[in-house]
Write a structure and sequence with these properties.
heterodimer; A: about 525 residues; Rossmann fold; 3 domains; 5-stranded mixed beta sheet; 18 strands; about 15% strand; globular; B: alpha/beta; Pyruvate-ferredoxin Oxidoreductase, domain 3; 6-stranded mixed beta sheet; 6 strands; binds thiamine diphosphate
Chain lengths: ~525, ~200
Amino acid sequence: MEKLLLLGDEALAQGAIDAGMSGMYAYPGTPSTEIMEYVQRSKSAKERNIHRKWSANEKTAAESALGMSYAGKRSMCAMKHVGLNVAADCFMNSAITGANGGTIVAVADDPSMHSSQNEQDSRNYGKFALIPMLEPSSQQECYDMAFHAFDISERYQVPILLRLTTRLSHSRSGVAVKPFKNENELKLPEDKRQFVLLPAIARKRYKMLLANQEKFELESEESPFNKYINGKDKKLGIIACGISFNYLMENYQDTGCPYPVLKVSQYPLPRKHVEKLSSECERILVLEEGSPIVEEMLKGYLGNCLKVSGRLDGSLPRDGELNPNLVLKAVNGIPFQIESIPGVVAARPPKFCNGCGHIDAYNALNEVMKEYGDGHVLSDIGCYTLAALPPFNSINSCVDMGASITMAKGAADAGLFPAIAVIGDSTFTHSGMTGLLDAVIENTNMVVMILDNSTTGMTGGQDSHAVDRLVSICEGLGVHKDHIIRVTPLKKNHEEMVRIIRQEINYKGVSVIIPTRECMQTLKRKTKANK
Amino acid sequence: MKKDIILSGVGGQGILSIATVIGFAAIDSGLYMKQAEVHGMSQRGGDVQSHLRVSSNEIHSDLIPFGGADIILSIEPMESLRYLPYLSKEGWVITNSTPFDNIANYPDINAVKEEIKKIKNHILIDADDIAKNIGSPMSMNMVMVGAASDFLEIDFEKLEKGIRFIFGTKGEEVVKKNIEALYSGKEFSKKFRSR
Ligand SMILES: Cc1ncc(C[n+]2csc(CCOP(=O)(O)OP(=O)(O)O)c2C)c(N)n1
């Protein structure tokens, strides 16, 4: 059979399309971005008119996907791990409402923080919400699991969390595809109050969710993605979750692993298999990417029942992603040596592209801030965060999307003057608008700079909801129109920008300065396409 | 047959075109392949790497173990050294010698080259210069594929076919130049080894 060469992200997208998905909803975020991008490029998604436009943020994406499920059709939303924090309200409550059409919440975690603020493990959310969870170990499983996820989602009327990690999201391999399924017809839930979480209804639905836990466990025990592989040597039993299974098998390419191995790719944990492993083996080693969730569950608080090793007893590092070498050391206890990197090699951190408008905006801001000293600029997440590095050293925070405006507000409330927020256009429409409303209502003395490059730059140039709307949004939120000022961040406009920033700092109230110039990457792409 | 290759360079230099050509050739030869890429933050002019694994047997890990790479194929000299922890004892470092200097503290290029020359199996090739000489500076990456071609255990024709596949939409001239680059890289590499 012909195989497609796909990233893990893409394999999941192709699987969802082939399994009859009617709508895909997402906000970009590494390493999840390519799921939606693949659906947007897909010919069959176009032919079937599958919904595939970006959402304003992860919460709106998750809610829209839930709405499509309400209407009986199959849907998926996708986000990076921290995106699930934004969508958490919908996510947790959707476990109680349950699903109608099958629905998948695809979340890509980033252990080792290659492109993220933290390395939180989304499996915590799955456990928290008490819903079934899938964690593929290969690109083929990404594809196959889309079918499986929609099926169990509809069988138990429950959303499914599908967890990816960077290495699988962004690794390419051959994937065999299946014949595609037709989409569901529009069909409202049989119980018209299923989605009405008034306390009396919510209590009932919650009991149903609790009652289903046993069935979810049975599903895991019978899942084609969980596997018990026997081994002769019972001194050790290994539980390998998601891609850590690959790192284990990498070390036993030719011989096969001498110890019994339980491969886990569907949760809740397959109890029967875990019991078998723990009764047969003297000690259990848990290999898992992210937090020691399974390890903690097995070990218990006192750690006096079962001998369990993993990230908590130092067999594996407590943080960071796993690799074949770390896994082998955890199995055989033999430390490994790695060659050192020669001293001449200098660090090469990411930086602004040549000609980027953010450079000119920060040059102007830096000049003004010389008068006030360090510590006045609260910022946010995007390409413009690179100004935290030398030679700019312009910004003092990057916490979560939208936090620049609200943190500047809090700092202004505390008496910091001037209080400056620097935020990108896409981040502003993601989560900055509501914070600006807070500031407008109190007429907080602060300056907000929205660096508008008319795209979601950091994640590769996806459409930004802010394009052509920033001024009207700020006006609508109540910022005085004399204090919404557009400038063009170019070297030749440096003096003008300096003057405007200074002037708005001295205005007692909320000002919004919008340096506007297209991202060099999207510009380059357009010029190339027009050639 | 099993080849584990670390591709390295600087974000924006285009190491992924190398992965695409070799990957295409591998799949076309009926081999298994896994290729882990770097997306996101570091693509903005930072150091980037890709783990490319090709084998006649099923491949498990998406990552190459430390000390396991058969080849480090780098389009930037300093970047070839960053991944030495991955190189196997008998592995080859095949690297472009033209520096990509986008940082304030880029080391003395001669010191970098000296360090590369200490590696038992290495090929230093001025791929930028070779690409310029054939009148196609953009084909530097394919010069590098050519330089590695004798080590890949993949038919050379398959690599040519890979180039046709990825550059085909850009016209016959672009395809021809890139294939010429592939040959030039192979030639230089052979000469370098028989010095
Ligand atoms: C909750 C959350 N969602 C997504 C991301 C990923 N992310 C980081 S920066 C960014 C894009 C920011 O775009 P914009 O604000 O327009 O700034 P630019 O990069 O274009 O300068 C995204 C989507 C994240 N870090 N957190």
